[in-house]
Amino acid sequence: MKKQLILLFMLLFFNLAFSAETMDTTANNVTPTVTSAVASVDSSNDTAAYEWNFLPGDAIRITATPDTGFPNGVYPVEADGFVDLPMIGPLSVKTMSRTEFEKKVKETYIPILRFSSVQVRRVMSIGFQGGFRRPGVFWVTPGSTLWYALSLTGGTEREDGLKKIKWERDGKRMEQKVSDLLKDPQPIYKLGLRSGDIIRVINRPKKKRLGCIQTGCFAHFKRWSLQCSYSNYALRMVSEKVTLCSKA
Fold first, then answer.
1. Domain 125-201: which topology?
2. Cα–Cα 20 to 30 A to 173, which of 123, 203, 210, 222?
C-alpha cells in the first residue's frame, strides 16, 4: 500500500513539473508575437501619419485604374489645407481623414467611371536642376526612396555627377551631403526632404585632358608650332632668293 502511494505522489510531482515547463515555453513563444504585433501597429501608425500629413507645396494624386483620363491627375493643396477637385469643389485635407477623403472621392467619381478602382495618395514636389538628363519638378510620394526620385530625371549628364549633387532649401544649401543620403534606403520623408526642396548638380562639362597636356598648354604649343612654320617658310624663301642670285 505504501509503495502504491509513493508511486502516486511521484507521478503527480512529475506531472506538475512538466506542466510548469510547458507553460514557460508557451509564454516565451507568445512574447515575441506580442512585441512584433505592437511594432507593426507603431509602423502602421507612422505610415498613416506621413501619408496624410500635408505640408506647404504638397499635392494629392488621384489614380483611377485602368482609366487614363478624368479624374487622373495631381491636385495641389493650398496653404489653408484645401484642395479643389473637379465636380466636388474645395475639400479640407486637414479636417478630413484619408478614409473620409477617399469615400467622398469614390462616391462622386465611381458612378461616372467604367471601373471602380480609385486611389488617393499624398505627393511631394521635388525640383531637380542643373546637369540632369531630364531636369524639372517631379511629384513623388513621401514613401519613395531618393534613388527612385533621381531615376525620374534619367540620371546626371556627368559621370561624376552623383558626387557633385547639392541639396537646397529656400535658397540655402543644406549641410547634409546627398551622396551620403543615397546610401540610406529610408524613404525621403525620413531623410528630411519636403516639398519645394531643390536637388542641384553641376552643369559645367568636365574638363578634358589630352594625355598629359592640358588645354592651356596645348594652346601655347599650337602658337609655337605656327611660329615655327612661319620661320621655316621665311627661311625657305630666303634660300630660294639666294639660289637665284647665285645663278644670275
1. Outer membrane lipoprotein wza fold like (3.10.560)
2. 123
